[in-house]
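for the record, two folds in this file. i put them one after another cuz i was lazy. first one right below, seq on top, structure tokens after. the second one comes after a little note so u can tell where it starts
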Amino acid sequence: IFFFKQTTAYEVYQCDWSSDVCSSDLVTMSISANPILDDEGEIIGFLAIQTDITARIETEQALRQAEMRYRMLFEKAPVMYVITRSGSAGPVIADCNNVFSETLGFDRAQILQRPLVDFYTPESKKDLLAGGYKRALLDIFSAEERELVTRDGRIIKSVLHASPEFDINGQVSGTRAMFVDITDRKRQERELETVIKVAETVRTAHTRAELAPVILEQLGNLLEASGVALILIDSETGEAYAEMGLGVCADWTGVWLPPGAGVTGMVIETGQPYQHGDVHSDPRIIHPDLIEGMQAAACVPLTAQEERLGVLWMCRNTDVSKDEFRLIDRKS
């Protein structure tokens, strides 16, 4: 009767159903029923085939559960995960977890299907194309350092672990990549190196002229700055003069500023540090030609025993993070 209700003269009826065949076992069956017609085209019966598909259903459920567990681990892991597929020009991002997209400052949709090298520094891109990706595909990749670039241009230093990713046919289709953020650790290492180097210089230097270049060089290395400058206050006139500039700030050396002029004067008078991510848009910059090509800058007051001595400047092409800004201020 059930088949008659579900089937017309020209239909093949198929369904899956589950039933208890004993007190504890649940069996899932697949039924395929073909109608048998008489000479008038009326259904007089059915030819039904019943197949036990319990094992297949259990396997499918296990796979779905495994995929759910994997997805949960993929999303909740405290490291950056990326799955790539091999493209004609290199690895393309097929999937990534939230930690990766949020760390880089993008929505996931803005990352998927883009080349992985879009988020690498030039040096890391060179390492990938020079054989790094091929080694990962062959499962002979050792942990290596890579630099990722965030949406606002910051550099995320990481250790990359990579292994092959396989398709449903067991063929290598790309890689599974895990990036461990070591930015803070690297910064702490640079900070320690800077402290040791400056302390050694202070111990052996005899004049301020010997101290200035070492301190500026170490500050620049610590913050990965494109340029740094030391500006001091003339005790007689109150004017500010650039004792020394390094990198793109080398032309600052010897420049004089009247008391209270520009950002330098503001920082000296208020004792408050300054930071700007688009420094050329700030009308308080009175010598924009001296920071040509630089995007971000920071200026912090330089004091000793509550005496105002001058300021320290740094500039570069990427924004200065809050942690780095606090570090500059603390070092001054």
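(here's the note) second protein begins now
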Amino acid sequence: SGNDSEQHGAQVRQIAVVCILFFAVYLGNSLCLSLFPNYLLRLGLGSVSIGIALMVYSASQSFTFLPSGRLSDRLGRRPLMISGSFLLALSALLLSLSNRIETTIVALVGEGIGLGLLVPSGNALISDVVRGRRSGLAFAVYQIATLASAAVGSFAAGALAETAGFQAMFALSAVLCGATTVFGYATVPRMHTRSRSSYSSAVAHSLRSSITGTASILRSNRELTLLTGALVIHSLGFSMINPFIPLFAEEGIHLDIAQVGILVGVWNLGITIAQIPSGHLTDRFGARPLLLSHFILSSFSWSLYALSPNFEIGLATMMFFGIVGALDM
């Protein structure tokens, strides 16, 4: 009918808005962070210091995820998305203006909090826009848009770092994230209107309830608790090697920074192209076998990468690494 056609058209437009917004912000973020360990190496940091710096980034993002989802439900998607993209832009701008270690750490925390605010609201907004039979396709398009932007950003990061330098690359990241802030302000619908005191109350409530709510869910579901434990252990292993993937490419395989960007881009490309096949496999065989395969093959792929002797073998390994990474859905 006419109403169904109009509703479908509106949904397509809203999905396009979200995908464009997140493509731009993930492109900026990928430019900023794809080769960040290599940037820290150039600032004179050693391996331990680089690991600590990136741990601070991951921790700030993880701790923001907890209250961010609840805050998005209470305040609406728009405030979280705008503030998150603005914080990403501000952090990238700080990196472009100063190479002091103290400023770099502050910017990393800002990057982590910014993504922690942005990502849950983006996922929720897609869910708000599309429900029912079309939701799977909508999420697939959204996921591919974000992953493709990460791949493009990684490819571009190496070339920009080689030709223009890291500071110019950070400035471009700030421009992209800043443009996303303006685009989000203009296009994401306003869902709630609250007073300043109401915002403060919502923030305080979200911080309190995120911890108690998570604990309550885990206590009530033993299988989820075991899955969470397995994922935490697996994530710890991945977090130990993740910062050193681009560093090993430069220092271990002896690639130039442009080739390192290509290597990381191929990794993200592998994740992108394997998304839809991985979804079909999950539907056919179930989530448990796919997740178990991801755990086993991840360890194998990490070992292959450690043994990569040159650029070509490194590319093949990174493609395999990315395909394995897509199995964790």
